[in-house]
Amino acid sequence: MVKFLFDANAFITPFNIYYHPEIAPGFWSKLKNYFERGNFYTIKKVYEEILEKEDWLSNWMKELPFQKILDSENDVKVMEKYGELSDFLLQEYENEEEVEAFLESADGYLIAHAMADKEVVIVTFEKYSNSPTTPNIPAVCQKLNFNFSIALQRNYELIWEIRDTNHLSSCKCITLFEAMYLAGFRI
Question: Which distant-in-sequence residues (6+ apart) come within 8 Å of 15 by Cβ?
């Protein structure tokens, strides 16, 4: 079964832009329900990043089931892939400091989970950028030959026209809206 693994911006962007809890409390109730009963997950680094800011979103995060917050650093297979990813990125990108920042953030661990588990699909709002110096999740997925959604490739252009379930089900990196579509999450 697919595990949708949420990046921090898959929480922060809806909170700040699309589904603020004052106007869309049902979104947050339903999202929490998918974490409790469905196949939505995140990682400890994302959890900790969101808890750094004391606000409504951090309080909401504290209510997620602990078993849906994966501990990357205590997963031998993930850490093995993390090491491989580190070596790969240092060869692929020109700026070592940018690579190290990427690896130290949740992003490197999310990619390592996707490398370690064929069922993991990263859910992000990051925009694709093919910078030779600065890695980002969609670009790294491309360099690793992981499929990633057309919406990410086009920076969200025509997102609702691109609902090819066959294409999406082969992707290792998709948008929140695409994860909602695939999981049957409707508001």
Answer: 21, 56, 57
